[in-house]
Design the sequence.
């Protein structure tokens, strides 16, 4: 049996009370959006409260993870384009000088190249060498005092969709050197992205066994 007393009209909230409650709820939602959601999800901290609460750092980590996923997607897409038509897509970045190649006349030519690439904040660039399995290249690249994220990787000829083979990755790195040994016939090289707020200049020097080297992104 339902024994609750039916409220009278006097017990119901007035229009003014409803409007006041709605306005308070709206203001609270905006306050939480600005001070909590935007810093934690998008690293947008208008009031400064997000950084004090540590939420902005969470948003920056999320943004960094999302941003780092973009190069891999671009690499996979670039691999499909290169393997199907040998065409390349060039982004508007400044190449300060053109590569200089020196090779001898022996059956196994040794090339020496240097490229200088200027990267604006959040801009990426990719350089690939045409190599056969087992061929080696000594390399050295530097951000000339800056810091960049990089991904050294290779793409075989007619690579299947989604293929990825990496030689190494790094975040906020100033330079790197070593010897790259091709794991298969195809294109091998580096992708860099400048995550700083200043323009960075990449200088890449290579020496070894490769048919050609060019910027593909």
Sequence:
């Amino acid at each position: 049996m339902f024994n609750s007393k039916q409220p009278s009209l006097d017990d119901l909230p007035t229009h003014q009370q409803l409007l006041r409650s709605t306005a308070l709820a709206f203001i609270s939602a905006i306050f939480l959006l600005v001070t909590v959601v935007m810093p934690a999800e998008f690293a947008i901290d208008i009031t400064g409260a997000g950084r004090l609460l540590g939420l902005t750092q969470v948003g920056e980590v999320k943004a960094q993870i999302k941003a780092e996923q973009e190069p891999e997607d671009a690499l996979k897409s670039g691999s499909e384009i290169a393997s199907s038509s040998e065409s390349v897509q060039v982004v508007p970045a400044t190449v300060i000088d053109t590569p200089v190649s020196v090779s001898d006349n022996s059956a196994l030519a040794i090339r020496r190249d240097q490229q200088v690439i200027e990267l604006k904040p959040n801009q990426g660039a990719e350089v690939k060498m045409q190599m056969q399995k087992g061929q080696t290249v000594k390399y050295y690249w530097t951000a000339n005092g800056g810091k960049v994220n990089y991904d050294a990787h290779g793409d075989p000829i007619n690579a299947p969709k989604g293929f990825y083979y990496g030689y190494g990755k790094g975040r906020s790195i100033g330079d790197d050197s070593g010897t790259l040994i091709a794991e298969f016939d195809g294109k091998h090289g580096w992708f860099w992205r400048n995550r700083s707020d200043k323009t960075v200049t990449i200088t890449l020097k290579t020496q070894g066994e490769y048919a050609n080297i060019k910027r593909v992104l």
Summary: DSSP finds three helices and ten strands in the chain. The helical segments are 15-42, 49-53, 55-85. Residues 78-106 have pLDDT under 50 and may be disordered.
